[in-house]
Amino acid sequence: MDNLPNCPKCNSEYTYDDGTFLVCPECGHEWTPGAEETNADEVVVKDANGNILKDGDSVTIIKDLKVKGASSALKQGTKVKNIKIVDGDHNIDCKIDGFGAMSLKSEFVKKI
Length: 112
Description:
The protein is an all-beta fold. It has no helices and eleven strands. It has strands spanning 16-18, 21-23, 30-31, 45-46, 52-53, 59-61, 79-80, 84-85, 92-96, 100-104, 109-111. β8 (84-85) and β9 (92-96) form a beta hairpin.
């Protein structure tokens, strides 16, 4: 039996060769042998200009955004400090003065 590496995701020793891929039967992870594994849990989020955003960055809203349940919209130019990157459609969590906790889409902000 070949000496195959453990699964890089769950460290299972029961991996098997499936032609061009190695497969883990426990977690279902597939990878190419010898290829560098990237951290799949890390989310890359870019602003409207293509700059990569990270937790703690400050951004500016680039267009007026209507907010459900609020009497007014978020105005263009509103500064948002200390953002948090999350997974999902609205991939920025933040707290905006005067509005409170919000989720924003990265396509409507630019990095300061």
